[in-house]
Amino acid sequence: MAAEQLTIALDANGADAGPAEVARGAALAAAGGEIRVILFGPHAEIAPSPGVEVVDAPVSIAKAADPTRAVRSTPDASIVQAVRAVADGRADALVSGGSTGAALAAGLFHVKRARGIHRPALAVLVPVPGRPFLLLDCGANVEVRPEHLVQFAHMGAAFMEAVMGIARPRVALLSNGTEPTKGTEDVVAAHAALAGAAGLTFAGNVEGFAVGTGEADVIVTDGFTGNVFLKVMEGTADALLRAVREAALSSARAKAGGLLLKPALGGLRDAIDPEAQGGAFLLGLRRLGVVPHGSFGANGIARALELAARGVRSDVPARTHERLAAAGALRRAPEPSAAPATVPDP
Amino acid sequence: MAAEQLTIALDANGADAGPAEVARGAALAAAGGEIRVILFGPHAEIAPSPGVEVVDAPVSIAKAADPTRAVRSTPDASIVQAVRAVADGRADALVSGGSTGAALAAGLFHVKRARGIHRPALAVLVPVPGRPFLLLDCGANVEVRPEHLVQFAHMGAAFMEAVMGIARPRVALLSNGTEPTKGTEDVVAAHAALAGAAGLTFAGNVEGFAVGTGEADVIVTDGFTGNVFLKVMEGTADALLRAVREAALSSARAKAGGLLLKPALGGLRDAIDPEAQGGAFLLGLRRLGVVPHGSFGANGIARALELAARGVRSDVPARTHERLAAAGALRRAPEPSAAPATVPDP
Q1: Are residues A200 and A265 part of one domain?
Q2: pTM of the model
């Protein structure tokens, strides 16, 4: 039985490689017939392809210094139009080719938070050879309260279960030590709440070493620490692989060795390739959003569209809600209007 | 002219390799004649060597779950005796073979904070090929106020100038974006204060990518984020080098390549070897403390003793005080007694 066709709204602006490359990714994803793409971007730069409807939206706010303000003041921006297509029900999920900040701000403003969610979070599938883990929050909320961290745990678990097919994902809390007493006051409070949370496989605190050990499927932290985590990882990997390359050019002998080793190391390069993972996920809104890395090419964009479709088919927002309800972790009292992406908690 | 002989108090307990290996490090450092070591540890396990006075102190609190309590309740512990030798003036600086928490707690209790310092910090020389940078705080203070971050900046600058011989060290603030408005409220406030700080070469905010770019000589952050930074870096490097090793065993061709490349990669292994850097530094006490990594062997211990001696000769505490005074960043009102190492701010 063929799966029902889903519609994904895709913002073509903001990717490093330009709108034409994003459009090539859309064409790749639509070729299978299960995904229809509404592509918002500069019509003149985009080649037509089957299954891709292009809406001319040349205005980009991907580089705006204040995404929240840009979203409100620029209704014709491509990301705003893409998000509104999702909010209106013309599309089932969002994929943004560019700025995380603009996608988050537009998503909060137009798609809105899912019922019972304190704060949406930005979750990144970290490419570890063999088994990626989900790190959240990676920058949506630089300051969080313990109940936010608890919700992130359930949001991450629901995502890994529904989209990545992992039964009983192991959820860990990032801290500066494995003991339950380690960390800031908020982290210690979140640990205590998670230790008793219903329906959650809580693996306790993990340290930064967990980046390479595979000991958790979901790692929960605040958006400031998560952002540092991700960038230190990328920076370290880049510096090391650069150093290995330099070592392999340092002598005739090393050059010969480097040539022989190259095919095997190519596999490693692929295994930690962020393009293979689809990018970051906006969790906690009424609809799923995916923000590929700005450096992605067509393959990465296509992978992001496929993950968004998988998230829609497995209904990540509903699964998240069920988990939070079962654990008694839904937001009870209505909060004032959602805080914009980059403004810290008062 | 021969330099005046300095005395360093060294705790032999707590290192992974055991007291005998720490004693071998002491012997190495003392062999030059410029350093005298008072070594506190189990006499029975330690071979005598010239320039090393052994004080029998078999009790170790290196693995204590609550270092502050252990320090207060165990006056005969080797780290407490070593720290008291520094406090009494029998030694000029401290090197601990083992636990950071115990060294910090004992240092706070017996050596005390330097005049005008809010909080001591744990600073780590991060081994980047070519030019290491100093990261602080790496775990002494999981929660900090902006004025603490400002002091860490000056403490780090004084250290890099005095001990590493770097003129006008570039000091950066870790955040989730380079713009001055990025980060938590406290980070934004610290940025504003540092931007106008006298006598400081402030390089602005850096992201986690700075781990590999060499763009700063000192990177300032809170102890929670610094701890995560360091461990993500170590975890990523370990996982990648393991993967390179595995790739080099994946086929006969790759094996041949690996063998040819090995000598060149050995240089890389040395360049990022934490032993070469001497470990972590306890800054902000009346005397300098050095805490080598628990995994260090004799060479790493010897390097730590040499760095401690260099810190004494260049009088890091006095230079730090001068910098803070010139910048108007000394603590004005006396604070209540120093907070213990692992207890968050009330």
Answers
A1: yes
A2: 0.89
